Fold:
Amino acid sequence: MNILVINCGSSSLKFQVIDTETSNVLAKGLCERIGIDGSITYENVRDKSGKIKEDTQIEDHKKAISLVLDALTDVKTGVIRNLSEIGAVGHRIVHGGEKFTKSVVVTPEVIAAIREVSDLAPLHNPANLTGIQACQALMPNTPMVAVFDTAFHQTMPEKAYRYAIPKRLYTDYKIRRYGFHGTSHAFVSSEIAKVLGKDAKELKTIVCHLGNGASVSAVEYGKCIDTSMGLTPLEGLIMGTRSGDLDPAVVEYIAGKENTDAAGVLSILNKESGVLGLSDGLSSDFRDLWKAREDGNQDAALALDAWAYRVVKYIGAYAAAMNGVDVICFTAGVGENDTKSRKLIYKNLGYLGVEIDDAVNDSTRGEIAELSTPSSKVRVFVFPTNEELAIARETYDLVK
Ligand code: ADP
Structure:
């Protein structure tokens, strides 16, 4: 079945059409600057026709979806003849709160429930909903499925997800840890079990999703028991522009010193911090940071060391939480491609019995590879994530 996968942001919309029988991407692209001016980038992957980018007025998400559907059915560039060849649409939804523990077919009740948890993700959930409604308007007879970033982490035990704050703040406002990147953690932890010829239920796996946004998860016997992001994606690892863990008292202190409010400080912590902040504004891109480090830039060196140190601490914590670990996976932009950042992490894992073949690490970019040696006590892999394929499969499973 052909599934249209939609990932809708406030001013952007990413899409892919995936044939779930072959797992092949037929077409993909991106609408940007929606509501500002607009452009669409489209690629017919099936026929390898190359990327086409066109600047065009995109006043809202409905217009963006209609441009996407036009491109998909265009006689020259298209991959389908008409919209009936799309069996279902899978939508990435950032926050499912406690309501959604798995993907669901979209109904009016589901839309209302996503709206209800929107104050937990005020930038993302309303944009995700706009994407659903725009698709429903243009494809009224096609089933829609909502796939939540938080759902995989709903198996965390209460001792892992509760913050040590007054209970009423949890019961009244649902303030707790939720975790994100769930589709990626679920995909990588289940696919690696297949590669090992095992059932995920036999393995203790730590997945390190290291991209611009980054999180680690502890997956014990197929279920997530802890993950590093919290109420929002700000908690946990040092990321491209996000601080990750820090003393909450920092918020008031910065607000006082910089003469701003909580929202102003959160903007600094989300957008100006992480390796970007540590490197004194140099870059959030690890390629730039390594180049600067090699040119002697001390801030870039510190940013990379502090970033890796935080990952090492989380791996240690999750090995302890599961009382052992069988498999560690590196995934996402940095985890899949950045051989030097991986080395900064694994050189501190010897205490777990991890042994790595440096030559394999140094030559592995963007492909599945086992980095550990045959005598390593823990198996360590690079496993490229594929959130769109995971969303397409979830969608197919619900509508087939
Ligand atoms: P996100 O989905 O969170 O935006 P990605 O998983 O796509 O992020 O990761 C993007 C990041 O991956 C880039 O900012 C860059 O730091 C890093 N990256 C991508 N390719 C490489 C590479 N070849 N070497 C080092 N870092 C890379």
Q: What stands out?
A: The pocket of adenosine-5'-diphosphate is lined by residues 211-213, 240, 284-287, 332-334, 337-338 (CB under 6 Å). The CA atoms of residues 209 and 331 lie 5 Å apart. The mean pLDDT is 97.
